[in-house]
Amino acid sequence: MNRQLRLRAGFLMVAMVLTGCGHGVADAPVTLTMRPAPLVIAVNAQGTLKATSSTPLMVPGPMWSQRQLAAVVDDGGRVKKGDVVARFTAAQSKQDLSQAMLDLTRNKLAREGKQADLVETRGKLGVDLAEVASQLAIAERYAHATIEAVARNQILDAVQDQHYLDTKQGILEWRKDQSGRRGSAELSVVDAKQATLALKATQARDNLDALVLRAPHDGIVMLKADWTGQKPQVGASFYAGSTLADLPDLDHLEVELQVPQVEAQGIHPGVTVELHPLGEPQQQARTTVSWVAAASSPISRQNPVKYLAIKATVPMAEARKYGWLPGMQFAARIVLADAKSVFSVPNIALDDHGQSVRVRLEKGGRMVWQEITLGVRGAARSEVTRGLAAGDRVVLVANKEKSS
Question: Which residues of the chain fall short of a pLDDT of 50?
Fold first, then answer.
């Protein structure tokens, strides 16, 4: 019981002391005395190793023809120029070729039938014309005979026969001409259909001949995922012309990094970047920023935070030495500033005043504004290139009553 009373009395005394000293502590501004010191401003980021250029590997065959994947190399597998990347089957193309060949045979037989009918019709018309010509010759001879040689009624009949035979001969000649034209038109239709069927057969044959995908150059096969995120699998159906995989150029690699927008101040092409694969900090490489996106944007619908995309070229000496491949995840340290002796202040002390930046200095117990020029500006601390001198006391947290 006595112990509890002593504890309560002690807590009460401490509270009284703090209450009495509180006003003095609150009145004292928090300041930072300027002295040149080393400064390192860096931003950490992560990204993916990619090739600056890659060759898309398209499913072979006539456009939009369908085929099934029979075999494919593993994702990330190495291939040489001319190596088989994937094999396909095309059951529909086999059926199309068989149907096209059957239709070609049928059309050929139909043409032969049309040709035979045309020859037969022309033959019949030729016989009829020959018969009419013979009868016409006889009729003409009797029609011009004298009355003494032939009876009058026979002459009249011959004249009538001549007129009839002339008309019949004209009709037969017209039928012969029409038969030739009609036959030629029908044969043209059959020939056009033959050409169409031959084209279908050629396309089906070409489709069956294009069932092997080969590598156009050396590289690493990176299978392309579909809209569901699934990589190509044996048995899946593909349309010719669609991208099955990419074959990146391993001689030109870069890392694409995502930097939070709030930490991306001061990043520009030429800034130093230190890279290493995730989990392999000993595999270090040093390079520079080669590209910075014009604006930041969210990287996913689930995360509203905006990121700035940047790219850094990977030195090929280190990439070959460590066997780095596209798709690997990298950690990066983007060095915005690395100086041995400069002035710097926490960003909490900065005040944006129109087009200028200023800080508060404590001079003789009063606080005055001082315009400064910033160098590299980090997320928490910034470099000061002009406006401050050694010994200046920069106010971090001030008493408003003493501000001027």
Answer: 1-24, 149-152, 155-156, 401-404
Which residue has tokens 């870069």? 254
Tokens for 72?
């494919």
The reported pTM is: 0.59
CATH number at residue 80: 2.40.50.100
Which position has the token pair 């898309």?
56
Same domain membership, residue 377 and residue 314: yes
Determine the Cα–Cα distance for residues 326 and 75; give it in Å rounded to an integer.
11
pLDDT digits (tens, 9 = 90+) for 252-298: 999 999 999 988 888 999 999 999 999 999 999 999 999 999 998 99
Q: What is the DSSP letter of 40?
A: E
Give burial (CB, 10 Å; 0-12/13-18/19+) of 48. middle
129 with 257, same domain? Answer: no
Residues 174, 304 within the same domain: no
The structure tokens listed for 309 are 């995309």
Residue pair 212/87 in contact (Cβ under 8 Å)? The answer is yes
Q: What residue numbers bound the domain in which 337 lies?
A: 30-49+250-402
Q: Which stretches of 48-151 are DSSP H helices? A: 91-143
Whether 298 and 377 map to the same domain: the answer is yes
Specify whether the CB–CB gap between 328 and 314 falls below 8 A: no
